[in-house]
Amino acid sequence: xxxxxxxxxxxxxxxxxxxKNKYVVIDCWAAWCAPCNILTPIIEQLAEENPExxxxxxxxxxxxxxxxxxxxMSIPTVLYFKEGKLTDKTLGALPKKTLEGKIQxxxx
Length: 108
Known about the structure:
- The protein is an alpha/beta fold.
- It has four helices and five strands; from the N terminus they run βαβαβαββα.
- The chain has helices spanning 14-20, 34-49, 65-69, 96-107; strands at residues 7-9, 23-29, 54-59, 77-82, 85-91.
- The protein has a five-stranded mixed sheet with strand order 1-3-2-4-5, sandwiched between helices.
- It is globular, with a radius of gyration of 13 Å.
- The N and C termini lie far apart (34 Å).
């Protein structure tokens, strides 16, 4: 069995994960969302290729507080944090190359 490279994030654990890690990328998703399911393997690959970044998955159906806090109206939405501050946000099932560009920007 392959070890998952992403961690599950909830309304309860979100702030701790974002505050305690230098770089954090959070994928806001839901099980019924087809574009979310397209994005999942891309996020998993990026997590494997970028071990210095914490990649989290936040299920918006089970966690309502964080999506409301960040004004998430559609999914998938990916949030990018550097040193506890939101630096970027992307919407939709974007290609890996696009997400890699966002990650490079995050860690520079």
